[in-house]
Amino acid sequence: MLAIFNKNLVDPPKELNSPVSHSTGSGNKPKYPQDIVKTFQQSYSHNVPLSIGFGNSAFLAHSSRKGPQIHDQRLFMGVDNMYCLFLGSLHNLNTLNKQYGLGRTTNEAMFTIEAYRTLRDRGPYPADQVLKGFEGCFGFVIFDQKAGTVFVALGTDQRVQLFWGIAADGSVVISDNLVVIKESCAKSFAPFPSGCMFHSEVGLMSFEHPKNKMKAMPRIDSEGAMCGSNFKVDINSKKTTMPRVGSEANWALCGSQT
Questions:
Q1: Which residue in 18, 25, 54, 26 sits closest to 167, CA to CA?
Q2: 7-27: per-residue pLDDT in tens?
Q3: What is the pTM assigned to this prediction?
Q4: Considering the domain 2-253, what is its CATH architecture?
Q5: According to the model, what pLDDT value does residue 50 have?
Q6: Cα–chain-centroid distance for residue 94?
């Protein structure tokens, strides 16, 4: 899968951007979104990806290639201008569908959209509590075209991985394909941290430890060059929590109460 979001839509952590990627002597340079799309399509030459563009704002692509394991599952759904790229599987999906009043045939991508919609429109629980109810291996990217927001999350089961980086024009690139990320973002990339979520209006936070801040850990590659940082939970720091203000409060702006 591949997701690209314009820098005016998503402001990623500044630590993802490596100065080495833009130095004069650097051989490999970050690519522009149109070239990244070509790289991705070429990497799946025998299985043409399904893709959709949103002008200069966003681009989503999905390859249905599936391996023998359930965590290899890839899904792509769009409902009411909300689009979800989902990787992996939820083994409590039937229970979650009943909880949200959804039918048996609802797959993980559709469920994730409906869970997101519930949080966005009614906000009954903090997002971290909802994600803790996802049992299985999963990673997903949601683009809410109408709201102009992006929501990304990765479970704690490391069988599913996501990577994110910075393109030549400052766009954010997200993919499960490490080769595509390396070729697209040069040194300005890192693994997306497991047990974490990112919302374009709020930033990066841990849904496992929502009361703790995240910290960037500089990452050095085998050539001794500084790459985009890894992000870890800072166990020694606490967030100043804000009280929720009724059901109309933006669900993504608040974690669990202290």
A1: 18
A2: 999 999 999 998 887 665 556
A3: 0.89
A4: 4-Layer Sandwich (3.60)
A5: 87
A6: 24
